[in-house]
Amino acid sequence: MIVKVNVVNYNEYWIELFEVEAKNLKVILGDQQVDIHHIGSTSVPGLRAKPIIDIMPVVHRIDLVDTYNPQMERLGYECMGEFGMPGRRYFRKGGDDRTHQIHIFEAGDVNVARHLAFRDYLRTHPEDAAKYASLKTELAQKFPNDIQSYSYGKDALVKEIEAKALTWYEGQKS
């Protein structure tokens, strides 16, 4: 399967796509849902991104999420289980032309703060957001049909920004 790497200019419509899907997820998750967040590059105004909406519901009990797989499939999602990240439930929609990714975590999971810190840091630190956007654009041009090389190429910068973001985020909560 060849996944096309397509980084595009920010689109305000991404907010609406998130909101529509968040409502659908709330119906499915019901009282299990603690919160739901738009994460990833499409959640950062002005940031170039692959046009895939990343959504992070936070639930009371991660072990109950698998019981919702039939409803998620009816919404068009492929249920991927933990998909390499213990404690997460991952769902993707759109096949080769992916449109949405769902990353569900239990309340208190360290990955919730990690994702929110990265998003909020990029929203408030335009220099790092621009550096990240530039690298993503360069990698998408260099590896238009190689998502693994694209992801690998971002890894060092993502880790660098994430470390700064987590320190900053903890300072914001004090």
Automatic annotation (TrEMBL):
It comes from the Bacteria. InterPro entries: GrpB/CoaE (IPR007344), NT_sf (IPR043519). It comes from Paenibacillus shunpengii. This is GrpB family protein.
